[in-house]
Amino acid sequence: MRLAERRIPVDKLCARCAQEEESINHALKECMHADQKIQALAPEQLQLLRVTLWFIWKERNEECHGGTRRPANTVAHNIRKYAEEFNQAAKRRTTARDNAPAKWKPSECGFLKVNFDGALNMQLKKGGVGVVIRNEKGEVMGAKAASIDCMADPFLAEAYAAVQAMELALDLGFNNIILEGDSLSVIKGITSREEDLSLSGNIIEVAKCKRARFQKCQIAHTGRDTNEAAHVLAKRGVNSDRIEIWVEECPPCIQTIVQFDIDN
């Protein structure tokens, strides 16, 4: 390819398939020999390849527009997290097709269920937090919707939402909770005994400190379809510039969802 650019006589056809003119895109993707090897990858490996290429391009664009170059180990850490999220989401979609719709489950007696979710608007670089606290009857004991400025990382948005959820529960005097969210990476991070030394790991360590302040704090992962109330509030946070908190009152925007969860 470089020789052709320098006007040195060279056969421009791909040396492997001899079907099309060689280019970077053809050599790595369009050539049948490359495609055969890509298709031979397991789904998880293929997803990791896609996320890696996307992240390299994303990092390049951010640097070109004045962003800070992040260490290679930090980028690699984020790639693994994103790939894991994508793979889990794919498994949840498959499970949803094969099984009956999942249902939100109330907490056991003596505990409150604290659902959290983070949302993101990549164009505005703005995030949102949604928190819903319910008792064993499914009644809303507290809720929160808030915005996060200068946010462009889905993992950080979810982790920040987890911290906000625990802070709201502590502020309302709840000591025994079940913290539930649909980000598997965040759930694993909070429950891990190992210190997260990545740049995004700082917020996870804050979440661990918050967790230690409860008498009992169980951590659970759930699907998006059983976390809908928190998701709606997170979206509300993205589209707002204020912090909204409800105490022993159900936010009007999630009343239908909450009632459905109680009835079912």
Give an overview of the whole structure.
The chain has 264 residues and is an alpha/beta fold. Helix content is 47%, strand content 17%. It has ten helices and six strands, in the order αααααβββαβααβαβα. The chain has a six-stranded mixed beta sheet with strand order 5-4-1-2-3-6. A hairpin with a 5-residue loop joins strand 2 (126-134) and strand 3. Helix 6 (154-171) runs parallel beside helix 8. The radius of gyration is 23 Å and the shape is elongated. The chain starts with a helix and ends with a helix. The mean pLDDT is 84.
Rounded mean pLDDT is: 84
* Count of individual beta strands: 6
Category by helix and strand content: alpha/beta
Shape type: elongated
Helix content: 40-55%
SSE order: HHHHHEEEHEHHEHEH
Percent strand equals: 15-25%
Taking pLDDT < 50 over at least 5 consecutive residues as the criterion, the unreliable ranges are none
Strands ordered across the widest β-sheet: 5-4-1-2-3-6
Please compute the radius of gyration using only Cα atoms: 23 Å
How many strands, what sense, and barrel or not for the largest sheet?
6 strands, mixed
What is the number of helices? 10
Q: Report how far the terminal alpha carbons are from each other.
A: 62 Å
Based on the structure, what is the oligomeric state of the protein chains?
single chain
Short descriptors:
6 strands, six-stranded mixed beta sheet, 10 helices, 47% helix, 264 residues
Give a nutshell description of this structure:
With 264 residues, this protein is α/β, with parallel strands linked by helices.
